[in-house]
Amino acid sequence: MQTQEKEAGLCFPHLQNSSCRRSGRPPAESMLMYITLSSMSVLTVALNLLVIISISHFKRLQTPTNLLLLSLAVSDFFVGLLVVFQILLIDGCWFLGDVMCVGYYIVDYVITSASVETVVLISVDCYVAICEPLQYFMKVTKRRVCISVSGCWIFSFLCVFIVMKDNLRQPGRHNSCYGECVVVFDQFSGLVDILFFFIGPVSVVVVLYVRVFVVAVSQARAMRSHPLSVHGSARVTLKKSDLKSAAGTLGVVVFVFILCLFPSYSASLTGQETLIDAVSAAFMFFLAFFNSCLNPIIYAFFYPWFRKSIKLIMTLGVLKADSRDANLM
């Protein structure tokens, strides 16, 4: 009887002492985690798919700023799909082999890194829109945005081979037992990850948004003092609502992004990741994942065009021949 109970607690009972043990969570707790993660995965995939369809289908929505949001939505969409693999790990067992384990972490690293770089581009876009409005349409073009976004994804893809080089040479080398899925970064890889995908991007974002805030406040004061002047010859009208939409919405996206990813990166930065208990680790994962679900909700709250596009998509209005030319702005 004891032997059967022992084998039931193993990921691979036939391997006995070589197999990892299951987490041993109560059935009710495991079921709650299954339902929560599954629901959030479906919601994240569905909401970001709406963003992808909206910007990809409607020509009027394919502005430089929205192309950046499209890149972020693509990464968030894949985050929602990757949660399926986390659901498989609820019981503490990985059944897909060492190669798939490394492949999972590679995809996760690429999309997370690309998200961070895209957030930096969003900050730059907001900075130019607020601080250099007369030159915005000359500096920020669709072509430049597409090149920048492609560069972010390519850079993330190249960096993953630097960071994961040891794990790629011998998948599963850091596993202590069968059924475990672990990758380990060496000191150099960890330094590259922290510098290029946390310290560097966060520093750039903070500096840009401090500048944006200062300029936005000064412009708002100028418009209150001289409501009919300022840039009239260039046919540029900067309203308070425009400033709020540009700086406010993108600012919320960037702030929420940093807030959700800060705990996990700060643990790595301080070298405390090995001291984190299971509850804290689960919370940090949930927070990082929840960000991908929050972004489309932020768009729906702040952007009228997104709400209009959702209505057209849900009512199958996108199937009409002239729907691509609909004006949703």
From TrEMBL:
| Annotated transmembrane regions | 31-55, 67-90, 102-124, 145-164, 194-217, 245-266, 278-302
Q: How does this protein sit in the membrane?
A: Multi-pass membrane protein
The entry's localization annotation reads:
Cell membrane
Q: Does the keyword section mention Transmembrane?
A: yes
Q: Which SUPFAM superfamilies match?
A: Family A G protein-coupled receptor-like
**Membrane is among the record's keywords:** yes
Its main subcellular localisation, reduced to a broad class, is: membrane
Tell me which residues make up the G-protein coupled receptors family 1 profile domain: 47-299
Keywords recorded for this protein, A-Z: Cell membrane, G-protein coupled receptor, Membrane, Receptor, Transducer, Transmembrane, Transmembrane helix
Q: Which InterPro entries match?
A: GPCR_Rhodpsn, GPCR_Rhodpsn_7TM, TAAR
MF annotations from Gene Ontology: trace-amine receptor activity
This chain's protein is named: G-protein coupled receptors family 1 profile domain-containing protein
- Give the species: Oryzias melastigma
